[in-house]
Amino acid sequence: MKFLLSFAGVLVAILLLLKFVPSAPINPVLPLPQGQQEVNGHDSEVPKGAGANADGEEEDGETPGNTSIAPAAPGQNYGSVITPAGALPMSALATALGSRDSAQVKLVGKATAVCQAKGCWMTLPTADGQDMRVSFRDYAFFVPKDLSGHTVVVSGWAHRQTVSVAEQQHYLRDAGKPEPEIAAITQPRQELNFLADGVLVQN
User: Fold this and answer.
1) For residues 30 and 38, is the Cβ–Cβ distance under 8 A?
2) CB-based contacts of 20: which residues, under 8 Å, 6+ apart?
3) In the chain, is it the N or the C terminus that has fewer CB atoms within a 10 Å radius of its CB?
4) What domains appear along the chain, each with residue ranges and CATH number?
5) Within 13 A of 172's CA, how many CA atoms are on the CB side?
6) Nearest-angstrom CA–CA distance, 122 and 90
7) Which long-range CB contacts under 8 A does 42-46 form with residues at least 24 apart?
8) What's the rounded Cα separation, in Å, for the pair 6 and 47?
9) Whole-number Å distance between alpha carbons of 84 and 82
10) pTM of the prediction?
11) Which ranges of the chain have pLDDT less than 70?
12) What backbone torsions phi and psi does residue 157 show, to the nearest 5 degrees?
């Protein structure tokens, strides 16, 4: 009888311990050591930012974590701190991407346009004269509206994308284009775009 009472007491103590002492997660997500980055496969899908919807479009009303945007100036970083080391010229992008849909790469080029609503995208010219739209991961940072004309380094993912009519029109409105030009967009189109983790102003 004493044995049964002792056993019941131990069982009750264990149950109380399990109820009131929180357990550690079975598979916790540990941060990477400082300076170490995850390496993605060449044919991996582009990591989608949290600020994008299912179609990859920007959610209206998104604001960066830091709303204070320093003016464009040489040496200024936006987003992750990056350096120009290893950056490829825009003319080398087609070779770096090859036939893949996406590639992780660092590029240098001259910004040709910037979103005038809030600095949530910019464009860089490709070798064939097209504009590559650069957006920012998770909309965690924006760039100054006066960045156009500055040489910048961007680090992130180049990727091919089908852009809907609505999204094309949205970008034209952001750029302050006239309504007739916006209304002339009637078909989705294939574009080469870029999702940046960081932007560095070179000059």
Assistant:
1) no
2) none
3) N
4) 70-203 (2.40.50)
5) 16
6) 14
7) 42/100, 42/103, 42/104, 43/100, 43/101, 43/102, 44/102, 45/101, 45/102, 46/102, 46/157, 46/159, 46/195
8) 56
9) 7
10) 0.64
11) 1-13, 15-68
12) -120, 125
